[in-house]
Known about the structure:
Elements (H helix, E strand, L loop, with lengths): L1 H16 L8 E2 L3 E10 L2 E9 L2 E9 L2 E2 L8 H18 L5 E8 L5 E7 L6 H7 L4 E2 L14
Parallel strand pairs: 4-7
Antiparallel strand pairs: 1-6, 2-3, 2-6, 3-4, 5-8, 6-7
Amino acid sequence: MFRKTTSAAIIFLMLSNGTANAATRAIKGPVQAEVVRVVDGDTVLVQAMPWPDHRIDTYVRLRGIDAPELKSECPSFRLAAERAKDKLATLMEGQRSVTLTSITGDKYFGRVVADLTLEDGTQPADLLLQIGLVEPYQGRVKRKRLCPDD
């Protein structure tokens, strides 16, 4: 009986908060994580450790940047996407642990958006911006870019 009541209470609390509000809730952090793999130039899969002895696999979109899309129809954009992904992968090499802060839900709810910091204090998003492999992103609609190959 206790288990059913506890489960019902947890479900009630989740539903009462509403899913529309989920993207606006934030976890300040820090949350330690291990990088599992680099997905593209602005997203990584991590194994986060929000509590002792608990691990959660989640996709993390790096806050404030937008990388070209790997599946773009434009060959130049695909090449730029590969460069951004490769640079991010290089930055992640040898990292035993990264830190996530300012964690919020993504509009698609399949990943989170966070600031990611490497062990030496470097933020890959800032580096990728500085070297011009990604563009700044503030959560707006992406601007349509014409393919230079056309």
